[in-house]
Amino acid sequence: MVAMNRTNEETGTVMIGGGELGRCPTRIHHDRYNTAERTTDPVVEHRIAEGRRWEDAVVSALLEGMQPTVAVEPGTRIDSGTPLVIAGDVRSSDREAITLEAMQAGASLILGGRLSSESLQSVGAPDILVRLDDGYAPIDVKHHKAIGPLGIPVRVTSLDQMEDVNGTTATFRANRINDLLQIAHYWKLLDEVGFANPRHLGGIIGAETPMIVAWVDLAAGRPPILERHREALQEAVLVTTVGRLQPDEPFIKAVWRGECRSCPWADFCRAELEAIDHVSLLPAITPNDTEQLLEAGISTTSAMANLEPGSVHGGYEIAEEATLQARARATGSLLRRSGVDLALPAADTEIDFDIETYGGSLYLAGLLIHEPHGAAFRPISEWSGTASGERRVLRDLFEFFDDVAERNDAVVYHWTGYERTILNEAALRQGLTLRSAPSVDAWFDEHACDLWWWIKQRFVSPNGYSLKVIAPLCGFHWRDSDPGGAQSELWYADAVSGDDAQRLRLLEYNEDDVAAQAAIRRWVRAQE
Ligand code: SF4
After folding, report:
1. CB 404, CB 412: distance < 8 Å
2. How far is CA 284 from CA 113, 253, 301, 494, in A?
3. Of ligand 1's atoms, which has the minimum distance to the CA of residue 30?
4. What's the CATH number for 349-527?
5. CA–CA separation, 290 and 304 (whole Å)
6. What residues contact residue 72 under an 8 Å CB cut-off, 6+ apart?
7. What is the Å distance from ligand 1's center to 30 Cα?
8. CATH topology of domain 16-231
9. Which of 46, 196, 345, 454 is most buried, judging by how many CB atoms fall within 10 Å of its CB?
């Protein structure tokens, strides 16, 4: 909520902010020292604006029916038990002073606080500090889902029972570990000033509806989150300290990794890595593999293409998948795996299926129905941006699925498990069920084929298995010059506001996604 102003001068103590923990070290360097102009990404801007709106919604919900004190300067009278809001334009040093005064006074909630410690080389702006029986706990608000089927154990409570840290058990998405490193950062800062709860509790309010707090024991886990925070902090301090001395050269050079896809420096790093044919560009190679390969003198994908799978170099055993990916990259095409059968599941009616969502809610289900006499695109859509709109789409789609099941002469193709996941969640949310199967998963098991998985088992891709990578390798190209799920979020926001051109654009985009799947199947059948 409060813009972080990390200490970033040429002298003085390097101070690390909570959002930097667990980040790619090269990104930490570039964010601070790279003066190259970053192009403004409208998708990122839109997501930031949506995130702010979500934070405002959480704050409104938290303060509903309360009379908070609003502080604009230190020395404001703060009553024990009264929530405190620190005004947005208060400067950093005053914000810190007010935060301390509020905790000394026993404010029940502190919104917009700030903490720092030179000895920890840390600074942080926790969205919320909440007073528990035995001290304060930090809570951060995130505009992404926090709870998932697998991950780190947490206790979940509703927003109006926020101080109840012993709610129902759930799991925190493991791929959101940086959220937990961030609250560990705030907990350490609270501990430094003597106000941390000794149970090491911190919370995250994700984008779940209704709003919930996920409470985590930061001292738990193997290794404990606080231990992981300590290591991440050490790395960030090192990278930042060295970066100050050599701003033109990151202490840790770019290595292509999962995080790159959403990094503002992706184009910059990708160009640098492509220019040297860097081995990390192979999807099978992790940053840890890269380190070992570089030590063994293997730095390029072309070198990898010439290696024997299973051969050992400097103690590192070369994985077959990496060599195959390197060979596919050398030819710029899909490489057929040896001994695989290319007979696709087939039926009289073949249906390519793809959904579009916004904030996890379904608004468009595209169906390209191929029958013996021809093919037709049938979109099921709604543009109100409401829960009842999602319900209509899901109800019509389930009717279609029930019909497919009863006819029993069709196979539905989709790309990845995304459709299953979203339909499962939407069915739960909307209280809708299929007539023809006990669950969404059971229906998919019986009538659908995950084309992504099917392709992955039979072909090696030079650059991963997204539809946007695979379809062009099979000769398909999108009509829109800027296709992508992220861009479609912007188009949907416009479409909901009544922009018919963007509505049409989304329909065409979805139609092309299902046509891309059909093109892949045609290409596969031509290889048989
Ligand atoms: S693009 Fe990748 S390697 Fe480069 S800074 Fe971002 S995350 Fe790091």
Report:
1. yes
2. 42, 19, 11, 38
3. 5
4. 3.30.420.10
5. 11
6. 87, 89, 90
7. 9
8. Lambda Exonuclease; Chain A (3.90.320)
9. 196
- 372: cis peptide before it, omega within 30°? no
Per DSSP (E only), the strands in 314-360 are 316-317, 335-336, 349-358
Angle at 266 between CA 1 and CA 507, to 5 degrees: 80
Distance 41 CA to ligand 1 centre (A): 16
Q: Is the CB of 263 under 6 A from ligand 1?
A: yes
Each residue's pLDDT tens digit, 384-437: 999 999 999 999 999 999 999 999 899 999 999 999 999 999 999 999 999 999
Q: Is the CB of 266 inside a 6 Å radius of any atom of ligand 1? A: yes
List the chain domain ranges: 16-231, 276-331, 349-527
Distance CA 13, CA 486 (A): 38
**349-527: same fold as 16-231?**
no
DSSP string, 376-441: EEEEEE--S-SHHHHHHHHHHHHHHHHHHHHH--EEEEESSSHHHHHHHHHHHHHT---SSSSSHH
pTM (2 d.p.): 0.84
Predicted confidence at residue 6, as pLDDT, reads 45
Reported as a single tens digit per residue, the pLDDT across 34-89 is: 988 776 677 788 888 889 999 999 999 999 999 999 999 999 999 888 899 999 99
Give the separation between CA 162 and CA 172, rounded to whole angstroms: 17
